[in-house]
Amino acid sequence: MRVVQITRHPVKSLQGEQVSVGEIDSEGLRGDRCWGIRDEATGKVLTARRAPELLFASATLDAAGLPVITLPTAVTCRGPGEGTDAELSRWLGKSVRLVTSVDAPAASAEFFADPTDDASDAIEWTMPAGRFVDALPLLVLTTASLRTGAALHPSGEWHPMRFRANLLVDLDGEGWVEDGWCGQVHLRIGDVVLAPQEGCIRCTMVTRPQPGLDDDRDIFRTLARHHGARFGAWTRVVTPGTICAGDEVHVEAVEPERPDLETLIAAPRASDEDDLRRLDPA
Protein backbone atom coordinates (compact mmCIF):
# COMPACT_ATOMS: atom_id res chain seq x y z
CA MET A 1 0.00 0.00 0.00
CA ARG A 2 1.17 3.51 -0.75
CA VAL A 3 0.09 7.07 -0.13
CA VAL A 4 -0.87 8.35 -3.56
CA GLN A 5 -2.40 11.68 -2.59
CA ILE A 6 -1.89 14.18 0.23
CA THR A 7 -4.45 16.98 0.29
CA ARG A 8 -4.81 19.94 2.60
CA HIS A 9 -7.70 22.37 2.61
CA PRO A 10 -6.38 25.64 4.09
CA VAL A 11 -9.87 27.21 4.20
CA LYS A 12 -12.81 25.11 5.31
CA SER A 13 -15.10 24.00 2.44
CA LEU A 14 -12.97 25.60 -0.27
CA GLN A 15 -11.05 23.46 -2.73
CA GLY A 16 -7.64 22.60 -1.39
CA GLU A 17 -4.25 21.73 -2.78
CA GLN A 18 -2.34 18.51 -3.27
CA VAL A 19 1.13 18.51 -1.74
CA SER A 20 3.99 16.11 -2.30
CA VAL A 21 5.18 16.38 1.30
CA GLY A 22 2.96 16.66 4.36
CA GLU A 23 3.95 17.60 7.88
CA ILE A 24 1.78 15.68 10.34
CA ASP A 25 1.47 17.09 13.84
CA SER A 26 -0.82 16.12 16.70
CA GLU A 27 -3.64 18.18 15.18
CA GLY A 28 -3.39 16.61 11.72
CA LEU A 29 -1.94 17.75 8.41
CA ARG A 30 -0.20 21.07 8.98
CA GLY A 31 -2.08 23.89 7.27
CA ASP A 32 -5.30 21.90 6.91
CA ARG A 33 -8.53 23.73 7.79
CA CYS A 34 -6.77 26.40 9.81
CA TRP A 35 -9.01 29.10 8.31
CA GLY A 36 -12.74 29.49 7.81
CA ILE A 37 -15.24 31.99 6.48
CA ARG A 38 -17.49 33.16 9.29
CA ASP A 39 -21.00 34.49 8.71
CA GLU A 40 -21.01 37.70 10.75
CA ALA A 41 -24.80 37.58 11.17
CA THR A 42 -24.92 34.11 12.73
CA GLY A 43 -21.39 33.70 14.05
CA LYS A 44 -21.13 30.29 12.39
CA VAL A 45 -18.28 29.17 10.18
CA LEU A 46 -19.73 28.52 6.75
CA THR A 47 -19.51 25.13 5.08
CA ALA A 48 -20.62 23.96 1.66
CA ARG A 49 -23.60 22.32 3.35
CA ARG A 50 -25.11 25.76 3.92
CA ALA A 51 -23.19 27.62 1.18
CA PRO A 52 -22.44 25.18 -1.67
CA GLU A 53 -20.85 27.92 -3.75
CA LEU A 54 -17.81 27.69 -1.48
CA LEU A 55 -16.70 24.60 -3.39
CA PHE A 56 -16.09 26.73 -6.48
CA ALA A 57 -13.39 28.76 -4.76
CA SER A 58 -9.96 27.39 -3.91
CA ALA A 59 -7.25 28.10 -1.37
CA THR A 60 -3.52 27.49 -1.14
CA LEU A 61 -0.94 28.54 1.44
CA ASP A 62 1.82 31.03 0.72
CA ALA A 63 5.37 30.79 2.09
CA ALA A 64 4.27 32.50 5.30
CA GLY A 65 1.45 30.01 5.84
CA LEU A 66 -1.29 32.51 4.96
CA PRO A 67 -4.19 31.55 2.68
CA VAL A 68 -4.36 32.70 -0.92
CA ILE A 69 -7.98 32.41 -2.07
CA THR A 70 -9.03 32.33 -5.71
CA LEU A 71 -12.72 33.07 -6.29
CA PRO A 72 -14.70 31.81 -9.28
CA THR A 73 -14.88 35.46 -10.34
CA ALA A 74 -11.07 35.26 -10.88
CA VAL A 75 -10.48 37.61 -7.94
CA THR A 76 -7.54 36.62 -5.73
CA CYS A 77 -7.54 37.38 -2.00
CA ARG A 78 -4.25 37.22 -0.13
CA GLY A 79 -4.29 36.63 3.60
CA PRO A 80 -6.79 37.91 6.15
CA GLY A 81 -7.84 41.53 6.39
CA GLU A 82 -10.45 44.07 5.39
CA GLY A 83 -9.77 43.72 1.67
CA THR A 84 -10.26 39.95 1.75
CA ASP A 85 -13.38 40.25 3.90
CA ALA A 86 -14.84 42.80 1.47
CA GLU A 87 -14.21 40.58 -1.56
CA LEU A 88 -15.62 37.49 0.15
CA SER A 89 -18.68 39.42 1.32
CA ARG A 90 -19.26 40.79 -2.18
CA TRP A 91 -19.00 37.30 -3.66
CA LEU A 92 -21.28 35.61 -1.11
CA GLY A 93 -23.75 38.47 -0.88
CA LYS A 94 -23.53 38.87 2.91
CA SER A 95 -21.14 40.06 5.56
CA VAL A 96 -18.46 37.44 6.21
CA ARG A 97 -14.96 37.40 7.66
CA LEU A 98 -11.94 35.17 7.09
CA VAL A 99 -10.97 33.87 10.53
CA THR A 100 -8.28 31.56 11.87
CA SER A 101 -8.90 28.54 14.07
CA VAL A 102 -5.58 28.97 15.88
CA ASP A 103 -6.11 29.94 19.53
CA ALA A 104 -9.81 30.47 18.80
CA PRO A 105 -12.65 28.93 20.81
CA ALA A 106 -14.45 25.96 19.31
CA ALA A 107 -16.62 27.14 16.42
CA SER A 108 -20.12 26.02 15.48
CA ALA A 109 -21.41 24.84 12.10
CA GLU A 110 -24.45 23.08 10.66
CA PHE A 111 -25.56 20.06 8.65
CA PHE A 112 -28.93 19.03 7.27
CA ALA A 113 -31.07 16.33 8.89
CA ASP A 114 -31.75 14.87 5.42
CA PRO A 115 -28.52 15.02 3.39
CA THR A 116 -30.49 14.86 0.14
CA ASP A 117 -32.83 17.74 1.03
CA ASP A 118 -31.51 21.23 1.74
CA ALA A 119 -34.97 22.22 3.00
CA SER A 120 -34.73 19.77 5.90
CA ASP A 121 -33.90 20.92 9.41
CA ALA A 122 -30.42 22.31 10.00
CA ILE A 123 -28.67 20.73 12.98
CA GLU A 124 -25.92 22.63 14.73
CA TRP A 125 -22.83 21.12 16.31
CA THR A 126 -19.58 22.39 17.78
CA MET A 127 -16.30 21.60 16.06
CA PRO A 128 -13.22 20.64 18.08
CA ALA A 129 -11.07 23.59 19.12
CA GLY A 130 -7.83 24.28 17.25
CA ARG A 131 -8.83 23.39 13.68
CA PHE A 132 -12.03 23.72 11.67
CA VAL A 133 -12.32 19.93 11.38
CA ASP A 134 -15.60 18.16 11.96
CA ALA A 135 -14.22 15.36 14.13
CA LEU A 136 -10.71 13.87 14.37
CA PRO A 137 -7.49 15.37 12.91
CA LEU A 138 -7.17 13.31 9.72
CA LEU A 139 -9.43 11.60 7.21
CA VAL A 140 -7.98 8.56 5.43
CA LEU A 141 -9.57 6.99 2.35
CA THR A 142 -8.56 4.02 0.17
CA THR A 143 -8.81 3.38 -3.54
CA ALA A 144 -10.50 0.06 -2.65
CA SER A 145 -13.43 1.94 -1.12
CA LEU A 146 -13.63 4.23 -4.15
CA ARG A 147 -13.85 1.19 -6.45
CA THR A 148 -16.49 -0.39 -4.21
CA GLY A 149 -18.66 2.70 -4.32
CA ALA A 150 -18.24 3.01 -8.08
CA ALA A 151 -19.32 -0.60 -8.56
CA LEU A 152 -22.53 0.08 -6.63
CA HIS A 153 -23.29 3.37 -8.44
CA PRO A 154 -21.38 3.16 -11.73
CA SER A 155 -22.94 6.25 -13.25
CA GLY A 156 -21.61 8.38 -10.38
CA GLU A 157 -18.26 10.20 -10.35
CA TRP A 158 -16.35 8.73 -7.40
CA HIS A 159 -13.53 11.22 -7.63
CA PRO A 160 -11.37 11.65 -4.49
CA MET A 161 -12.00 15.41 -4.61
CA ARG A 162 -15.64 14.79 -3.74
CA PHE A 163 -14.73 13.13 -0.44
CA ARG A 164 -12.11 15.61 0.83
CA ALA A 165 -9.77 13.11 2.48
CA ASN A 166 -6.32 14.17 3.66
CA LEU A 167 -4.65 10.91 2.69
CA LEU A 168 -5.58 8.61 -0.19
CA VAL A 169 -4.05 5.16 0.16
CA ASP A 170 -3.75 2.95 -2.91
CA LEU A 171 -4.17 -0.80 -2.56
CA ASP A 172 -5.49 -3.68 -4.64
CA GLY A 173 -8.98 -5.13 -4.54
CA GLU A 174 -12.32 -3.81 -3.40
CA GLY A 175 -14.28 -3.61 -0.16
CA TRP A 176 -14.63 -1.14 2.68
CA VAL A 177 -11.06 -1.73 3.81
CA GLU A 178 -11.02 1.06 6.39
CA ASP A 179 -13.67 -0.75 8.46
CA GLY A 180 -11.14 -3.40 9.44
CA TRP A 181 -8.62 -0.75 10.46
CA CYS A 182 -10.74 1.25 12.90
CA GLY A 183 -9.71 0.57 16.46
CA GLN A 184 -7.74 -2.50 15.35
CA VAL A 185 -4.53 -1.36 13.68
CA HIS A 186 -2.01 1.41 13.36
CA LEU A 187 -0.86 2.71 9.99
CA ARG A 188 2.89 3.33 9.85
CA ILE A 189 4.13 5.68 7.13
CA GLY A 190 7.85 6.15 7.64
CA ASP A 191 8.16 7.46 11.18
CA VAL A 192 4.54 8.60 11.31
CA VAL A 193 2.03 6.39 13.12
CA LEU A 194 -1.71 6.90 12.65
CA ALA A 195 -4.64 5.23 14.40
CA PRO A 196 -7.89 4.94 12.40
CA GLN A 197 -10.75 5.26 14.89
CA GLU A 198 -14.16 5.21 13.23
CA GLY A 199 -15.92 5.46 9.91
CA CYS A 200 -16.72 8.94 8.63
CA ILE A 201 -20.48 9.46 8.46
CA ARG A 202 -21.20 11.26 5.20
CA CYS A 203 -23.71 14.02 4.55
CA THR A 204 -24.70 16.61 1.96
CA MET A 205 -21.07 17.41 1.14
CA VAL A 206 -20.59 14.34 -1.07
CA THR A 207 -23.55 15.31 -3.25
CA ARG A 208 -22.46 18.88 -4.01
CA PRO A 209 -21.43 20.08 -7.47
CA GLN A 210 -17.91 21.44 -7.78
CA PRO A 211 -15.45 22.05 -10.59
CA GLY A 212 -15.55 18.99 -12.83
CA LEU A 213 -18.18 17.17 -10.76
CA ASP A 214 -21.97 17.36 -11.06
CA ASP A 215 -24.55 17.37 -8.28
CA ASP A 216 -25.27 13.72 -7.44
CA ARG A 217 -27.62 12.86 -4.57
CA ASP A 218 -27.26 9.16 -5.43
CA ILE A 219 -23.69 9.20 -4.13
CA PHE A 220 -25.05 9.67 -0.62
CA ARG A 221 -27.99 7.31 -1.18
CA THR A 222 -25.60 4.58 -2.30
CA LEU A 223 -23.44 4.96 0.80
CA ALA A 224 -26.49 5.10 3.06
CA ARG A 225 -28.04 2.00 1.50
CA HIS A 226 -24.93 -0.14 1.41
CA HIS A 227 -22.61 1.10 4.15
CA GLY A 228 -24.49 3.04 6.81
CA ALA A 229 -23.51 6.31 5.08
CA ARG A 230 -19.87 5.75 6.09
CA PHE A 231 -16.89 6.31 3.80
CA GLY A 232 -13.28 6.65 4.88
CA ALA A 233 -11.88 6.63 8.41
CA TRP A 234 -11.47 9.40 10.95
CA THR A 235 -7.96 9.00 12.27
CA ARG A 236 -5.89 10.29 15.17
CA VAL A 237 -2.16 10.92 15.17
CA VAL A 238 -0.04 8.67 17.41
CA THR A 239 3.41 9.76 16.24
CA PRO A 240 3.88 13.02 14.25
CA GLY A 241 6.39 13.42 11.45
CA THR A 242 6.74 13.89 7.71
CA ILE A 243 5.10 11.85 4.95
CA CYS A 244 5.57 11.98 1.21
CA ALA A 245 3.40 10.98 -1.73
CA GLY A 246 4.58 7.51 -2.73
CA ASP A 247 5.47 6.41 0.80
CA GLU A 248 4.61 2.84 1.70
CA VAL A 249 1.87 2.27 4.26
CA HIS A 250 2.34 -0.61 6.73
CA VAL A 251 -0.53 -2.02 8.77
CA GLU A 252 0.38 -3.01 12.32
CA ALA A 253 -2.03 -4.83 14.63
CA VAL A 254 -2.47 -3.29 18.06
CA GLU A 255 -3.85 -4.63 21.29
CA PRO A 256 -7.14 -2.89 22.12
CA GLU A 257 -6.97 -0.76 25.22
CA ARG A 258 -8.74 -2.30 28.20
CA PRO A 259 -9.58 0.37 30.80
CA ASP A 260 -9.87 -0.80 34.38
CA LEU A 261 -13.22 -0.96 36.15
CA GLU A 262 -12.72 2.37 37.91
CA THR A 263 -12.10 4.10 34.57
CA LEU A 264 -15.20 2.54 33.03
CA ILE A 265 -17.40 3.65 35.92
CA ALA A 266 -16.05 7.21 35.78
CA ALA A 267 -16.27 7.55 31.98
CA PRO A 268 -19.13 9.75 30.68
CA ARG A 269 -21.73 8.17 28.45
CA ALA A 270 -21.68 8.97 24.73
CA SER A 271 -23.92 11.90 23.91
CA ASP A 272 -25.85 12.92 20.85
CA GLU A 273 -23.18 15.57 20.25
CA ASP A 274 -20.52 12.86 20.08
CA ASP A 275 -22.46 11.21 17.27
CA LEU A 276 -22.92 14.48 15.43
CA ARG A 277 -19.16 15.06 15.36
CA ARG A 278 -18.65 12.03 13.10
CA LEU A 279 -19.49 14.09 10.10
CA ASP A 280 -18.58 14.48 6.49
CA PRO A 281 -15.50 16.66 6.25
CA ALA A 282 -15.97 20.16 4.92
Which helices and strands appear, and what pairs or packs with what?
Elements: E1 2-8, E2 17-18, E3 21-25, E4 28-29, E5 35-39, E6 58-61, E7 67-70, E8 76-78, H1 82-92, E9 96-100, E10 108-112, E11 122-126, E12 138-142, H2 143-152, H3 160-163, E13 167-170, E14 185-189, E15 192-201, H4 217-227, E16 230-239, E17 241-244, E18 250-253, H5 261-266, H6 272-276
Parallel strand pairs: 12-13
Antiparallel strand pairs: 1-2, 1-13, 3-4, 3-17, 5-9, 6-7, 7-8, 10-11, 12-16, 14-15, 14-18, 15-16
Tell me what the structure shows.
With 282 residues, this protein is an alpha+beta fold. It has a single domain, classed as PK beta-barrel domain-like (M1 Pyruvate Kinase, Domain 3, Beta Barrel), CATH 2.40.33.20. Helix content is 17%, strand content 32%. An 8-stranded mixed β-sheet has the order 2-1-13-12-16-15-14-18. A 3-stranded antiparallel β-sheet has the order 4-3-17, with no helix packed on it. A 3-stranded antiparallel β-sheet has the order 6-7-8, covered by helices on one side. It starts with a strand and ends in a 6-residue tail after the last helix.
